[in-house]
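Standup notes
- DV: blocked on the single-chain target, sequence here:
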Amino acid sequence: MKIDLVIKNANVPFGDNLVKSDILIAKGKIAGIVSEWKPDAAKIIDAEGLMVLPGCIDSHVHFMDPGFTHRETFKSGSHSAAVGGLTTVVDMPCCSIPSVRDLASLFNKKEIIEKQSYIDFGMWGGITGEDVQEGNLANVKRSMKLMPDPR
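- DV (later): unblocked, structure below
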């Protein structure tokens, strides 16, 4: 296996301790964590004295894009998340115009925000009481047919 990147001398949490380790990266993914790596890699980062943690996921963010960009854009929200150590966010359906309540609005939002995001993202879709009261459930049923069966 060809190692593209080694993050050497990293303090990696292991139980209640920090263990000095070398993190091996191949094809953009962690290929191993070892106590000492001798062979060369295409790139080496010395993390001496630094603690290396896995990225975190925030499954409930309210980024205001598209629609309320005077408050926040997906670019500014995802940048702030990345600076805080997040690698993935899941955006709520109610914080954009239009809100994500059908496939068209889902794909519209995805097209807009995927060009802006600094990190990985997911999106929630939803329905409102208004949808139920007015009998507008066709979009929900159509969307559910596209979703994989979780069983």
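- Follow-up: The longest strand covers residues 5-14.
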